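Review form for a predicted model. The reviewer records the input and the model, then writes brief findings.
Reviewer: anonymous (R2)
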Amino acid sequence: MKIRTTVITTALSLFVTGAIAQESVKTIFKSNPRSSGGYGAISNKFTQIRGKYANMSGLYGGWFINQRLMIGAGAAAVTSNIPVPLEYSTDPLRNRSYEYGQVGLMTEYVIGSNKPVHFVVQLFSGAGFTLQYDRYNRHINNNSDDPISDENWFFVTEPGVQVEMNLFKWMRFSPGVSYRASFGSDAAGMEDKDIRGMSYNVTLKFGKF
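Model under review:
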């Protein structure tokens, strides 16, 4: 009985030792990535701010690791007019407009990058800002009497998903949706509830994929 127990114990020890020896540690980031590239993107978003239609144009890009993970930076700003209601205007005698923008870290995880059509999960995290300015009366006669006022900074995060199409090896088309959430905005007429909302976007990406 004692010999039998010893044999079983020895066999189990050898099995566990062999399994440990063959098991490799799997990590998210490898010291020598299988492939490395990078790309840049131009994007246009259709969204709402303060319940009004807003068009946002942006740029982002970064390092593309193992045809899966992109880590980089991005920035976007509203290009359409968002009027400031008189009750929130810092100068009721002027025709004031809101500006909104955001800048920060941009990440994308690409699922099946080599397939002609695949999915992308993305996340923007960074700083957002709003301010009031005179959209239509700026720089008249080179007059600098056009104060930017009520400048307001806060945190923004925007997760999203895209359906990506490989048009060429170096260019991709990616329509998608995202949700913008802000935290800490306290400008007149531009609280968090006025900034948060869905965005529908179209994006072109160029680079080494």
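Findings: The two ends are 63 Å apart (CA to CA).
Further findings: The CA atoms of residues 12 and 18 lie 10 Å apart.
Recommendation: see findings above.
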